[in-house]
């Protein structure tokens, strides 16, 4: 590692696919006093719990059932794991962020149901940030749609952000 390394992010695909390697690498990095970040869909709370001790910052990516980013027959299991990961992260005192990717197909009703489930188990003070990320391209939501999601989150959490998928704008995969 270079002397000017100031943080290490584990993201892309899903780092939990390689949880053992991520856990060991994160442990090594923390020994160097370098902060570690994990961004995950949290599809597996057991794997998440194994890497959690070696991660400083967590971003949990939640999905809605109508977003078309997950098979609907597996959605309830995914949501259960996402909620478990959120509990684990906040109960361990980790700096925790939530991100929800939305598309033009994401319905406000299902988005609000997800918010209720999230904020029934955590308080505003346990969260470091809430990010709404619009999909880019074919199913991109319009501004009116985005602002309705923003308003729905704002009821629970004031520091909500809408952040586009910048890597798509610049043509990166």
How many helices? The count is: 6
Rounded mean pLDDT score: 91
- Helix coverage percent: 25-40%
State the order of secondary-structure elements, H for helix, E for strand: EHEHEHEHEHEH
Strand arrangement within the widest β-sheet reads 1-2-3-4-5-6
The largest pleated sheet is described as:
6 strands, parallel
Distance between the termini: 25 Å
Low-confidence stretches: none
**In total, how many beta strands?**
6
The CATH class designation is Alpha Beta
- CATH homologous superfamily descriptor: Aldolase class I
- The overall number of domains is 1
Name the CATH architecture: Alpha-Beta Barrel
Strand proportion, as a percent range, falls in: 15-25%
Q: Could you tell me the radius of gyration in angstroms?
A: 16 Å
Say what the CATH topology is: TIM Barrel
> Globular, elongated, flat, extended or rod-shaped: what is the shape?
globular
The structural class is alpha/beta
Comma- or semicolon-separated keywords:
six-stranded parallel β-sheet, 6 helices, globular, 39% helix, TIM Barrel, alpha/beta
Give a quick summary of the entry.
The protein is α/β, with parallel strands linked by helices and 173 residues long. It is built from six helices and six strands, in the order βαβαβαβαβαβα.
Word description of this protein:
- The chain is an alpha/beta fold and 173 residues long.
- The chain has one domain: Alpha-Beta Barrel (TIM Barrel), CATH 3.20.20.70.
- Helix content is 39%, strand content 18%.
- The chain contains 6 helices and 6 strands; from the N terminus they run E-H-E-H-E-H-E-H-E-H-E-H.
- It has a 6-stranded parallel sheet with strand order 1-2-3-4-5-6, with helices on one face.
- Strand 3, helix 3 and strand 4 form a beta-alpha-beta unit.
- The chain is globular and about 45 Å long.
- The two termini are 25 Å apart.
- 27% of the residues are buried.
- The model has no long low-confidence stretch (mean pLDDT 91).
